[in-house]
Structures are given as structure tokens and as C-alpha cells.
Specification:
heterotetramer, A: 418 residues, Aspartate Aminotransferase, domain 1, Aspartate Aminotransferase, domain 2, four-stranded antiparallel beta sheet, 15 helices, 16% strand, globular, B: alpha+beta, three-stranded antiparallel beta sheet, 47% helix, 13% strand, binds pyridoxal-5'-phosphate
């Protein structure tokens, strides 16, 4: 009899991960005289040559401003731009391309929401619910909105594993709650939040839900229709795509009702000094010359990821996470921060009373790139009462050798710093 | 009345006679001249097709189940394009128009006008013609 | 005796323009079976291989999230990112790097201004002055702001050459005028506005001035201190740089006083649910992971342009403009739109009653890429009572052969379309 | 009191004894242990140097024209870095401190800490020490 465990292992084993790794030119470089071990994937992912080549191809063959040019270059650019929107739509299983808005990143997308949706629908006394786990980009825009509107930001607490406390979440829902905005996956600690349940509870009370998918989109299959979220946001640079591009997904009915955010070219139908008529979706929210390279090549990143298969990627990253967790746990004085039952490939830890900055500095000298500090989650660090953590975050292109190198470097750091 | 497919076939053959873009475009411009012109009273903003760089006015009427279009444009290539559509769709059943495939435009070598680019708007014209047809079926 | 004319010609002649042109891979491609003639530079410029290579180098060698990582990649990335800010500062002669804010483009920069500065300083009854010439991106943000604040947008009229009418401009200035926002150079017609005089008049009345430099930065030396503008904005993609990046320059004293626009990572010093403290300039205005590739490689574009020399570029483009104007004017039925005394390398025209779309379509078939339509300046087109124009815009990498091909194609189009 | 340049020279020689990063970092950490520790009453937010990933508290006092620093950090490498600065700047004239060059840090092989990256904050420490010196000259 074949167990589920065996099936999953064989799934990931069907991919030639060694070959996949070779797609990433940067992984061949040396840092401080040692081959680079890149474990800062939650901050930004590396790019396969397919993506880099696509950028070169774009600028060498059909770079031109999109959407209004009659000439061939502009037509080809527009075609590729809209084809990429279609790829994004399929990637997250949106029902229409009109629901896919190109933004400059997750932060840009959340600000669009806060300014456009927020200023129309949030009134004095309303409440917006976020969690203790959120990234600053899913805190500050709502803080600013609440301040302007005299609304209140409420915080769903977490337990010491880094999981949302479900009872407390339910208690915080009220007539005043207008929006819930939570991370699909926390970047600092890695827990996967029960977004589907959250959305169900919210919708029963006519509350809208935005899911910050910055850490989820690169690592697992996203299905916005199945999830039934009202808004979903993520960044290209964290999923093998270029910097400066991201996505706001929104249900058409909400996006239709929302006023435009930025004004300018592209987002208008007609302009006169007396009356300006805004364009249809998705263009209404895409003012100015878009990041054409970024939008088009995000499509190539998606092709790359789906070519490997998001399920394969998930499995592989879990293998690496489990191995690294086991190895790290075998060291003395290790304290893992964030031990949720369901967790993505993020490993946040402290060792004894070694400061994360010290650890990170020594690891870097050993060629191992990890992130240290608060990970843009100061309220979360404050909750744990720690100055920060050391965070190793894995991507499918990492391998067992990277983990060996990490462990070796941590050992060396412990020796030097204790 | 010939079927849509028959007319498309015919157009494809006509266009195939030209092996360069010049001939094709001359022919297309010629088609524009034969377009059933829209009544001046419909040359208003209400009948404008949005999403074209040139202005296109389009009107539809039905005779029983069958739909008849008239149109005009201030650009002569655009006029040729809309004439092409009118040639195929005129006198067809509303329902069939609503589901028309129209990929023959690609085959006759005018693919550039089918891009999602908002500048040319053949796509917008097709959409508008189908909408009219749908509206007329509901009467 | 050497005349000024001769000096200028010899200046531009000192550059090997043939070699410069070879830097642009896209110019080697064919369109509709003919070598591409790219004359849509005002919409977006092409990229030299130096810029494309810099992108490849970035993603292959030091791609990582900036500003917070201890590891080498992040340090190198941050270093390059801030070095680019310094290059931008020098490019426009700002007095400090803190005055240089990375945005996603001119449109993004103007919206930042309208949201941040505008919502703090514009009150009911105030007036904002723009011109009849403006690009939608320098109209709609101010329209939206005025609508929200019950302020009034006033329009400086132009004459039939496309020049601002100076007397009318002065008459429109009043106690209520809080901001003047005008293009340095109009994208649709090419006139160079007398920005220095405008700024002088404005400052005598304590009015701030924003200059939309989208069409100026690629073509001439910019000196924000000499100009004394309060704000200056431009886009990377129009000046040989990547898409998705642009600049807001602002005098430090104004930027300091302005509230943040977008919230998120990077733009904060400390975040707690009770109180968030915003970061110093320039970071206060740069929420979220920046477009790192774009920002860094904008620096390479600047190096490329300054390597050739902005004066050389200006001269060369004027040579091309004059030649093309002369040749085009020799054709029957040509009507040039925009004939200002001081003009950049933009040639907007109509021929007889041929529709610009028809002309553009035939030109494309001949391998010549021009822009047709309203050029995101509908109010300007309405003023001239035309549906749009055909616009050929020249860059230093164009040459005399491109102009021959343009003229030949226009002749062919006239024959086919009349 | 030795001049800044002399102390820098000495430090450069000390660091040059190690030909690998390990030796240098061990030595740097050692320097941190000799740092004149800040009085506990100054270990408050007011004395924190902004822009460091680890916390650094810094205090300055003058004795006539001469400035004396004490400091602490919760990270030991950071503590070593601040110790390095204190070693060079302590007992120097305020004015000289304000104009100190400090590029020796690059030469001893700790360049990575001089980046504009906000994570390490050596740059912030230098700035803060200079600010203190400037403030003291004004008294
Ligand atoms: C004068 C002018 N202003 C503003 C813009 C908007 O620039 P972007 O689309 O790069 O944001 C443009 C570009 O078309 C322009 O030409
Ligand atoms: C959970 C989460 N939300 C939001 C963001 C912000 O994304 P970006 O910086 O790409 O805008 C990040 C990235 O750090 C993140 O991890």
C-alpha cells in the first residue's frame, strides 16, 4: 500500500531539482570566498535565466509604450502585456482578467485598496481587523486610513506558536467590522493562516476580506475563487519575477464600485477640463505608463513556476524545511520562533542570547545569506519580546547542501559569539 | 442570403489575390466605400463605438430575425474594417451574430487590427455589433 | 569667424553617432519586412545594450532586497541603489540625495504630490494652475484633488503655435493660486515652456511650482537649483532606462513638511499598533520593496546619457528635427501642429484631411513607428479641434536615413489614402 | 594623547596581523570587551543610536576641549565596532572629531559595515558621535 507521505515525496522527486537549480545564475557566485547559500527567499527570490532572458528579449525586440500605439512594436508589447494579465488570472484562478490589476507590489496594492476602497467605505467608528502577525505593509496603510477616518484598527492576537487565536478572532467580529486584512502566510514566522475559515466567518457577517498573499503566491497554488476572498495581493519579486511589479486581485463587483486611486494617462476614457470619464477595469486603476517589462516578465515567472508545478514546489520546500528544522533543533540553545502546525518554508530562530545581527554577520562571512532583524514585523517582535530573529527561508532551488552549510555556519557562529 | 462562413470564405479568396499588404489595404479601403452609410441623425455620440482611435458610428436595425448594420468612420482604413464586418454580419440572424467567430480577419492578413490595443478598436466594433444583435434578439 | 551655429554643429559632430546607434539592439530588428524606423521616442525610448546588460548583471550577481539585510548581496544591492540616487541627484543638480524620491514614473510622482502635498496644503477655494498643453497625468491628479477639496483648476491658454500666452498666465495668478504645475516640454507638440520665468513670477507671489519634466529630462541638461522649481518629476523609461521607475525631486523643506503618501515597509522608523514613527527622507516616501532593478539601472541610463553628453544629445536631436521639419514641409498639404520658437524634437503633423490613424497604419506597414492620436492630451486636441495628430519624435540614436524613410512612407501613405 | 591618525595606524597594524576574517572578527569582539561602558542611567531610548539593527547606546562628555565617549550594545559585533570608534575618537578635540575621516575602517577590512544599509548602522554611530562633538563645541 502506498501512503500519502510516499505519494507526496515521489511527486517532488519527479522534478530534477539539480537541473532546476542550474537555472539560477546568481547561485553560481561566491560571497566572501565561498559559494553563495541564499536563504533570504522570503525577502526576495532569485531569478531563473528564463526570466532574465525574457527581460533581455523584451528590451531587444518589442519595447514600446503599450495600449495606444498603432505601430507593430506597441501592438506586440500590448499583446504580451495583456497575455501576462491572462496568465496571472489563471495563476490565481480569478474569474476575469478585469479583476487583475498591475501594481508596483504588495505594498502598492494594499495602499491602492486603503485609498480607494477605504476612503469610500470606511466611516467614523468603523473597525478594520488585522492580526498581530502582519507585515508593516499590511499595518501602516490601515493605520493611516483609520487615523484619517477616525476608525479603529483591531488586532487578532496570536499564541506562542504564532497561530491566530480563533476564539479571540470570533469575539473581535462585530457590526462595526468592515474589513479583515490578514496575511495568508506570515513572512516572519511562516504560519499559514486559516484564510478560508476567516473568509467564511466574515462573509456570514457581510465583512469583506483582503488576504496579503506576498508569502503565499510563490509557494503554493492560489485559488481566489475557492478561497472566496474579496481582495488578494502579492509581489512579483518574491516569486521569481522582476522587481517593481505586483498584483491586486479584486472581485469585479467591488473594483467596479471603487473610485480610481491615481490619476493620469491610461486610466481615463476621455479628459476635458470640465469632465473626465474614467476608463473601465482593469485600466481604471493603472494610471500612467505601466511597468511594462515587469508586467510582461511576471508572466514568464508564472510560466516558470507552473512549469515546475506549484504542488511540486510546495512539497520540495517542505522537505527542505523539515530537514533544516530537524538539523537546527539538534543544536544546543536553539529557540525556534513560530512553530505553527501548518507552516511554510520559513525558519525563524534565536540561539542562546546571541543577537541576530551578530549571527547574521558571521553567517554572511561563511557565505550564507539569511535575514536578521524584525522582518518588517515590529509589533510581532514586541509581542515575543525579542529584538528580532535570524530567519532562513527556503525556496525550491535550495538544496540539502545549503542546509548543511547553514548548520555548519551556525555552529561556527555559536563558537565565535558565545 | 449567403451564410457567414460563405461570405468569409469569399473575402478570404478576394484578399488572397493580393500578395502584398498594399493590395490588401487598397482593397480594404475600397470595401469602405461600399459600406451602407449610417443615417446622419445617428452620427452622434450615442452611436459612437468606444475604444477606437478614429471615430466609428454604428447603427443596427432588424427585419424580423435578421440584423442590418450601417456605419461610418472618419478614418478610411477603419471604415474598411467596419465594412468587412458589415459584409459578413449583415442580414444574418441576431443569434448567429452574437456567437460569430470572425477569426477570418486573421486569415485574410489583417491580424494587426485584432490586438488588445485600444488604438484600433476592431475588437470594440465586434463587441458593439454583437451587443446590438443581442439587444435585438430580446425584443 | 566661427558662428554659434558652426560651434553647435561641431559639438554634436564630435560624437560618433553611427557607433551610438549600434548600442541599441532593437534598432536592428525588422518590422513588416523592413528595418525598423523608431520615431515614437516621446512615448518611450529604446534601451542601449549597456542598460540591458546592467539589468542582467543585477539579476545575475546581486539581486536581493535592500536596506535591511546584513548579508553581502543585500549590502551590494543597497550600495548600488543609493549610488544611483546620487547619480540622479547629480543629473538634475539637486542639492541633496534626500531630495530624490524613487517613484514608479512621472504619473506616480505627480500623484504622490497631489495626495501628500495637495491634501495638506490645498483648501476650499484655492486655485491650481496648469496649462492647456498638459499631459493627462498632469491634469487628472489635480482634477481629482480639486474635486475633493472644492478647489479650482485654472488653465493657462496657448496660442496657435502651442506657446503659453504670457499675459494670460500673469492675469491668472492670484492670492488664491497655491500651485502651478506645468510641463517643461509638451509631449504632444514639443514647445519648451519658459519655466524659469514662470517660477520667478510664482515665487514672487509665494506660489509653489511643479515642473513635469517627463519630456525634458531625456533631451537636455536639467538643473533644478538654477530653475529653482519646488518639485520636478520625470520617468526612467523615456530616458533609456527601464520601465516602472521615475523620480520626484522636491526641495527638502517641502518634502520634510509633507505627510507620507503610501504606508508600508521601508517608510517607517518604528511601528507599533499605538504609534508609528515615519522614516526620514527620502525613505518616508518609498513604501514597500522598491523597484530595485529599475532604480539601479536608471543610474546606468544616466551614465550612458551623460557619457554622450546632454548638450551633444540636444544638438543632435535639433539637427534631426530641423531636417525632418524641412523635408516634411516640402510635401503638399502638410500642416505642422506646434510651431513654437523653442521646441524639442517632436514633430506633430497632419496631411490634408487624412486621419492620423490611417497615416499611422500605413507608416507601420512601411516599418516606420510613429504615434497617432491624442497623445494623452485630449484638451489640447480639443483646443486645436482636431482628432489627433501624427507624431514623429526623434532621439539622438535616430539618423538621416530614418528621416528619409519617414518622408518616403508619408508620401506612400498620401498616395494610398487620398 | 596619541593623535587619531596614530591610533588608526596602530589599529590597522593590529588588524593586519590576521589574514582571515575570523581573526579580525575575534579581535573586534575582543575590543568590544574593553569598551568604556555607558552608565546604566543612560541606557534609555534617549541615548539610542537610530538606524542600527542592534541597539546601541552612546553617551558623550567633555573635559575642556576633549570629548569622551561611553557606549554599549546588545550585539557583540556592534559593540566591537563602536569600541573601534571610541578608541580612535576618545580624548580628541571636539572639532577634530567633527571632521574625522575614519576611512581606516575600510582599510582594516571591515568595509561591509560602512554600507548605506540601515541594518548595521556604523554610519549612524559615526554620525551620532560627530553630532555630540559638535554639540559640545557649542557649549
Ligand atoms: C509631458 C508628460 N507628462 C507626463 C507623462 C507621464 O509619464 P509616465 O507615463 O511615464 O508616468 C508623460 C508621458 O507620456 C509626458 O509626456
Ligand atoms: C507578508 C508580507 N506582506 C507584504 C509584504 C510587502 O511586499 P512588497 O515589499 O513587495 O511590497 C511582504 C514583503 O516583505 C510580506 O512578506
Amino acid at each position: 500500500m502506498v501512503t500519502t507521505k510516499e505519494i507526496s515525496t515521489s511527486l517532488s522527486a519527479s522534478v530534477d531539482w539539480k537541473k532546476v537549480r542550474e537555472d539560477f545564475p546568481i547561485l553560481k557566485r561566491e560571497v566572501n570566498g565561498k559559494p553563495l547559500v541564499y536563504l533570504d527567499n522570503a525577502a526576495s527570490s532569485q531569478k531563473p535565466k528564463q526570466v532574465i532572458d525574457a527581460i533581455v528579449h523584451y528590451y531587444s525586440h518589442y519595447n514600446a509604450n503599450v495600449h495606444r500605439g498603432v505601430h507593430t512594436l506597441s501592438q506586440e508589447g500590448t499583446h504580451a502585456f495583456e497575455a501576462s494579465r491572462l496568465l496571472v488570472k489563471e495563476f490565481i484562478n480569478a474569474s476575469k482578467t478585469e479583476e487583475v490589476i498591475f501594481t508596483k507590489g504588495t505594498t502598492g496594492a494594499i495602499n491602492l485598496l486603503a485609498y480607494s476602497w477605504g476612503r469610500k467605505y470606511i466611516q467614523e467608528g468603523d473597525e478594520i481587523l488585522i492580526s498581530q502577525l502582519e507585515h508593516h505593509s499590511n499595518i501602516v496603510p490601515w493605520q493611516m486610513l483609520c487615523e484619517g477616518k477616525k476608525a479603529t484598527l483591531k488586532i487578532v492576537p496570536i499564541n506562542e506558536k504564532g497561530e491566530l487565536i480563533w476564539d479571540k478572532f470570533l469575539q473581535l467580529l462585530s457590526d462595526k467590522t468592515k474589513l479583515i486584512s490578514v496575511a495568508h502566510i506570515s513572512n516572519a514566522l511562516g504560519p499559514v493562516n486559516p484564510v478560508k475559515n476567516i473568509i467564511q466567518e466574515a462573509h456570514q457577517r457581510n465583512i469583506l476580506v483582503h488576504i496579503d498573499g506576498a508569502q503565499a503566491a510563490p509557494h503554493q497554488k492560489i485559488d481566489v475563487q475557492d478561497m472566496d476572498c474579496d481582495f488578494y495581493t502579492f509581489s512579483g519579486h518574491k516569486m521569481c519575477g522582476p522587481t517593481g511589479i505586483g498584483i491586486l486581485y479584486g472581485k469585479e463587483k467591488w473594483l467596479e464600485e471603487m473610485p480610481p486611486f491615481e490619476g493620469g494617462g491610461e486610466m481615463i476614457k476621455t479628459v476635458s477640463f470640465e469632465k473626465t470619464i474614467y476608463n473601465d477595469l482593469p485600466f481604471k486603476f493603472e494610471a500612467g505608463t505601466p511597468h511594462i517589462e515587469g508586467a510582461i516578465v511576471l508572466g514568464d515567472a508564472i510560466k516558470y513556476l507552473t512549469g515546475i508545478g506549484l504542488e511540486n514546489i510546495s512539497k520540495r520546500e517542505h522537505e527542505l524545511l523539515h530537514l533544516a528544522t530537524k538539523e537546527l533543533n539538534s543544536l544546543d540553545g536553539i529557540r525556534l520562533i513560530g512553530t505553527a502546525a501548518e507552516k511554510s518554508s520559513v525558519l525563524s530562530f534565536l540561539v542562546g542570547d546571541i543577537h541576530p545581527f551578530d549571527m547574521g554577520t558571521i553567517l554572511d562571512k561563511m557565505g550564507v545569506a539569511v535575514r536578521t532583524g524584525h522582518h518588517c514585523c515590529q509589533p510581532l517582535m514586541a509581542w515575543f519580546d525579542i529584538p528580532g530573529t535570524v530567519r532562513a527561508s527556503f525556496s525550491f532551488y535550495n538544496n540539502e547542501n545549503d542546509i548543511d552549510r547553514l548548520i555548519e555556519a551556525v555552529k561556527k557562529a555559536i563558537k565565535m559569539l558565545s | 442570403m449567403a451564410s457567414m462562413v460563405e461570405i468569409e470564405k469569399e473575402l478570404e479568396e478576394d484578399f488572397a489575390l493580393f500578395d502584398d499588404w498594399e493590395g490588401k489595404y487598397d482593397y480594404l479601403i475600397g470595401l469602405g466605400k461600399d459600406l451602407p452609410l449610417i443615417d446622419d441623425k445617428y452620427k452622434t455620440d450615442e452611436y459612437i463605438v468606444r475604444g477606437c482611435q478614429s471615430r466609428v458610428w454604428l447603427h443596427a436595425a432588424n427585419n424580423g430575425d435578421f440584423v442590418f448594420y450601417s456605419a461610418d468612420s472618419d478614418a478610411i482604413i477603419t471604415k474598411g474594417l467596419v465594412a468587412l464586418l458589415v459584409k459578413v454580419l449583415n442580414g444574418q440572424k441576431a443569434e448567429e451574430i452574437a456567437h460569430a467567430d470572425l477569426s477570418f480577419i486573421d486569415r485574410i492578413g489583417l491580424k494587426e487590427h485584432l490586438s488588445p490595443n485600444r488604438s484600433n478598436g476592431l475588437v470594440s466594433m465586434i463587441k458593439q455589433m454583437k451587443l446590438y444583435a443581442l439587444a435585438l434578439t430580446k425584443h
